[in-house]
Amino acid sequence: MSTARSRGWSGPTPAEVVVVGVHAGQDARVVDSAADLAARLGAGLVAVWVDPGHMVVGREADGTLDLTPVDPDDDDVLGQIEAADELAERIGRHLAGAGTTWRFVYAAGEVASELARVSAQHPTVYVVVGSRRPGLTGWVNEAIGGSVAGRLAHTQPVPVVVVPLAPSR
Predict the structure, then answer these.
(1) How far is the C-alpha of 34 from the C-alpha of 129, rounded, in Å?
(2) Where is the UspA domain (predicted)?
(3) Distance between CA 29 and CA 32 in Å, rounded?
């Protein structure tokens, strides 16, 4: 078992937020679109990375998550936490000078459920996600696990914005 913690706000805590789902290798247009929407609304940005390979077994009062791998043979929790830290740093560099107050949230479990949980914990006005990955891999992932955007659109009390991705990279 290991632990992971989200990061605090880059500035003052905003009255409203836009929640955006992020992951390594993601098209920058997703974060850019979410940051632009947040800036237009005078809202903050909550960037959420959901680690589907781990489950939360406990939540500490300070926000620290106690994690265990879904696969008992996978003991690379530290590798995933380092990847999340690297992603948070990359987003921070990308948003530097954007004028949007933001924070990074590390979550673990099923992506749509965790985005919904984080959204419910904040005064969220929009949830932003990217469309599925192009190609066969994206289609297979959606066929097996379902569409994150579709599941959010059917369950969230706030609008869900889907940022289209380029058909090929």
Answers:
(1) 9
(2) 18-164
(3) 5
| Torsion sign over Cα 100, 165, 93, 127 | positive
46 has which bridge partners? 19, 103
**pLDDT greater than 50 at residue 1:** no
User: 123 near 15, Cβ under 8 Å?
Assistant: yes
Give the predicted TM-score (pTM) of the model. Answer: 0.81
Read off the amino acid at residue 149: A
Of 84, 54, 53, which is closest to residue 66 (Cα–Cα)?
Answer: 54
Domain ranges of the chain: 2-163
Give the number of other CB atoms < 10 A from CB of residue 95.
20
For 2-163, the fitting CATH number among 3.40.50.620, 3.30.365.10, 3.40.980.10, 3.40.50.2000 is 3.40.50.620
Residue spans of alpha helices (H) in 6-53 = 28-41
Report the range of poorest mean pLDDT among 22-36, 43-57, 99-113, 136-150.
136-150
Candidate from 4-18, 70-84, 108-122 with smallest mean pLDDT: 70-84
- For the residues of 101-122, what is the DSSP string, one character each? -EEEEEEES-HHHHHHHHHHHT
